[in-house]
């Protein structure tokens, strides 16, 4: 009798252990938290059901929902291949992400990994929120990184991040209008105005540029599109004379269709010869090129880029998952992953070797163009440990209630406000 009771007890114990094992194995891969639309003041929490003993790597990002879904799918595939690499990904609203990440570091609840805007890396490093990333680079992989994307990551003899990708703000030109004038894309503000005036002889309603004044990144890219202004725009310095004229022109003459939300209307206006150039991120240019491969051209860019949209993975100083964090970052920044990201979401690779020369003649919808390597090898941004403070001032400038004034009054206000107080 006692033996029978003993056997029943052992059978019950094995059953319970088996159920627990199934639950643990079912937790590999990613837990997903999307904070993009969460109310202000809500702190992200780990998903219920995460296995505490597994110590999942906590990764913070800030991106739109469609891109976040792509990252989650990639991470799920990694989780299937490496079940011990449990990852919790949290997506923040882009406007609030920086403050939330700083706060989490200050109270000792930092994430293990953050996908951080390159401009912010030195600021986080100086504050002691990050660990150096020198050891994450394998062999000569640092030499394979594009210099404009690694220079902002350097401080105090170390490098503090691993570049993931970039989405530079570019100016794309109507191929047909350039062909009509037998001109190359203008390199200076003066030549731009001359070319627009020439085109207006046959179409007085022509808009020289499509740009959104309330988009601080677009305005940075647009003001840094011409020789003599690139470095000033990249570093949010005081406006020079050409930039002042550009601002006045933008607020009085520019078309303001949103390339993302009004893409087909924008395409129609360019096809009808009513818009000469469009300021937009590279990923949006790639989407338009998929729809209309011969509509727009950026030429063969050689000048530096004022806003390269670089992002890098950083490891926080609070992380206790250093080895596994390094493993995950190396997987997410491999050449094959970067090429896949370009195909799926249009972000340009951070590795030189991905821009293989044999693909130079292929359409940009299938391969990143080799000629983009040159501008991405030319850093113009000077790392600044107080970048977020100045960037917030820059964003607020283009959202000021004063912009309800007449166009010329708006331009005067912006120039006076920035050169008098905000610029460096």
Automatic annotation (TrEMBL):
The keyword DNA damage does not apply. It comes from the Bacteria. It holds the Pfam family SBP_bac_8. The keyword Nucleotide-binding does not apply. Keywords: Signal, Transport. Belongs to the bacterial solute-binding protein 1 family. This is Extracellular solute-binding protein.
